[in-house]
Amino acid sequence: MLRLKHLFRLIGDFGSYAVVNRVWWIIPMMMLLGLVVVFITVGQAAAPYTLYTLF
Question: Which of 13, 53, 52 is nearest to 30 (CA)?
Answer without folding.
Answer: 13
